[in-house]
Amino acid sequence: MKKLINAVDAVVREQMEGMALAHPDLLRVSLEPKYIVRADAPVAGKVAVVSGGGSGHEPLHGGFVGYGMLDGACPGEIFTSPTPDQIFACGMEVNGGAGVLLIVKNYTGDVLSFETAAELLHGEGVVVRTVLVDDDVAVKDSLYTAGRRGVGGTVIVEKIAGAAAEAGYSLAQTAALAQRVSVNSRSMGMALTSCTTPSAGKPTFDLAENEIEIGIGIHGEPGQRRIPIVDADAITTLLAEEILNDGPYTRTVRSFDPMTGDWAEVSLTSEPFRVGDRVIAFVNSMGGTPVSELYTVYRRLAMICKERNIVIVRNLIGAYITSLEMQGCSITLTRVDEEMVRLWDAPVKTPALRWGI
Amino acid sequence: MITTADIEAWLQRAAALLEANKGYLTELDAAIGDADHGVNIARGFAAVVQKLAAQPGQPLGPIFKSAGMTLMSTVGGASGMLYGNFFLKAANVVGDRQTLTPADLLTVLEAGRDGVVQRGRAEPGDKTMIDAWTPAVNALKDALAAGQPLSAALHATAAAAEAGMRATIPMQARKGRASYLGERSIGHQDPGATSTYLILRALADALADEDAKRA
User: Fold this and answer.
1) Is A23 one of the annotated active-site residues of the chain?
2) What is the pLDDT of residues B72-114, one digit of tens each?
């Protein structure tokens, strides 16, 4: 294993210390427990948007802390969910009186941790709501699995929810919008190579020189299937078709109801993409794939969308939700309406995403 | 009568047993999860023991609560939350008591198990730690109802957990990260059910030892 690290157990802390030194104008860092908050937190009267998850996906989530996006981010160990005490302390610090929205990627550990934290925050009188992101179409059924995983759609949800909170939306409005963005997002990823967590010291799966893994998540776990390598256009077509041909997806989601202080189960359905849909197209590097290759992927994706009469109204291209140094990419399409596009365009000033300001 | 010393001995024994089986648990997790269960759970229980040593003489409720909070904040991942919840629910039923009868211990394990079910929403057969917890709790209940002495009843408990753990091998996972593997999860023993067995084995061994010391 060759990595730019000092010690395996210092990886998360030292990266946080580096962020604090690099971006004092944007954020503050707490090391015990670990969380990152915007420099001006708490912002009085504004809904606070908090997310978190395992480390190793940078810039997600800490790189999205700042004006117009996240108020707080809670990093766990590499590929391990954060613990409730982190999320609780972060939520307490960023709450500006208008409540806290927790954006949760659908992984069992993350869900259990954020659920516990939501209850702890509620117990302290903080008005809290939760939104689940589960956009990974590689997972086909929700009945016999833990459901679709939260992947690329998370970035879109965090940007739009953050802008809504900045624009003065109430907690209930921000949560409803975030859930709508999540339900309208679909993603599919692939790996050219595996990745190595510092603690394991060796790749999490073996992939031969002539093989690629289709339908991966973001934790270096094996994907849906393994195929012989094909060219960029063929890979892009494969990913895009998984997304565009995905039928209606219905699942039951638990969300925290601050009125009752209890969990409510709601059934949500993601409708398939249809001719004329307007989308944000997001081509993401898994960490090791250069931008040049992402544009090659986008080139083919744009052609496919045009053929299918899907209108790309905005795009995002780069490494935003990664699996350490894995080579590969993911494609996310989010169906958007005018309100979502307006909030997507709204000013944002974070270490990893910055425009209009 | 089960004392606070017995419970502390249990937690110490569990920490040692999990540490000794760290590699084994991680190996099981590598097959169907993300290869960190052994390291995470051993780190968590070591922290539990360390924290208890720093606060001696506490009643049972605070001991369990400290264990639960420590596991939640040090393990990470689903297992930390589930074991943490086990001990928090256990804390709720024992309050400030210093001793437990065997029947009380059953109540503690039942409440803890219910806490795991409530948080994780797994059912028997989903290939999770519940597949070890539920037969174990049932075995303790049956053994006590049949009038068995505590140490025999706890050995039956651990044996039932072990059988439950083995029974996860042919199951297809329906919860947690292993569920994404679909049929490929079949043929592997669930790491969470395995750590649950080890924790209950530690309980049986610790209380047998304490009994022997008293005898």
Assistant:
1) no
2) 999 888 899 999 999 999 999 999 999 999 999 999 999 999 9
**pTM score:** 0.90
Picking from A119, A45, A121, the residue whose alpha carbon sits closest to that of residue A89 is A121
Strands (E), B26-162: 99-100
ipTM of the complex: 0.79
> For residue A270, how far is the Cα from the chain centroid?
17
Q: Distance between CA A127 and CA A100 in Å, rounded? A: 6
pLDDT of A142 > 70? The answer is no
A92 in Cβ contact with A124 (< 8 Å): yes
Q: Distance of CA A71 to CAs A42, A48, A174, A181, B51, Å?
A: 8, 6, 14, 19, 32
Token duo for residue A357: 């300001």
CA distance B59 to B96: 5
CB-based contact B76 A80, cutoff 8 Å: yes
| CA separation, residue A350 to residues A104, A112, A270, A354 (Å) | 20, 28, 30, 6
| Alpha-carbon gap, residue A205 to A203, rounded angstroms | 5
pLDDT tens profile A69-104: 999 999 999 998 999 999 999 999 999 999 999 999
Contacts of A149 in chain B (CB under 8 A): 180
> Distance between the two ends of chain B, CA-based, in angstroms?
13
Beta strands in A233-353 (DSSP E): 249-257, 262-270, 278-285, 311-318, 328-335, 348-349
A220 touches chain B (CB under 8 A): yes
Nearest CB among A83, A86, A139 relative to B180 is that of: A139
How many angstroms away from the CA of B107 is the closest CA of chain A?
Answer: 23
What's the residue count for chain B? 215
CB contact (8 A) between residue A116 and residue B119: yes
C-alpha angle B160/B161/B166, rounded to 5°? 95
- pLDDT for the residue B3: 95
Strand-pair partners of A49:
A101
CB contact under 8 A, B35 and A200: yes
User: How far apart are the C-alpha atoms of A85 and B71, rounded to whole Å?
Assistant: 11
Q: Would you call A219 a catalytic residue per the annotation? A: yes
Choose among A79, A82, A108: nearest Cβ to B175.
A108
**Do residues A15 and A55 touch, judged by C-beta distance below 8 A?**
yes
- pLDDT surpassing 80 at residue B183: yes
- Work out whether strand A262-270 and strand A278-285 pair parallel, antiparallel, or are unpaired: unpaired
- Using CB atoms, which residue from B34, B40, B175 is nearest to A221? B34
Q: Is B54 exposed, middle or buried (0-12, 13-18, 19+ CB in 10 A)?
A: exposed
Binned at pLDDT 50, 70 and 90, residue A222 comes out as confident
**Percent of the residues in chain B that have a pLDDT greater than 90, as a whole number:** 82
pLDDT band at A32 (very low <50, low <70, confident <90, very high): very high
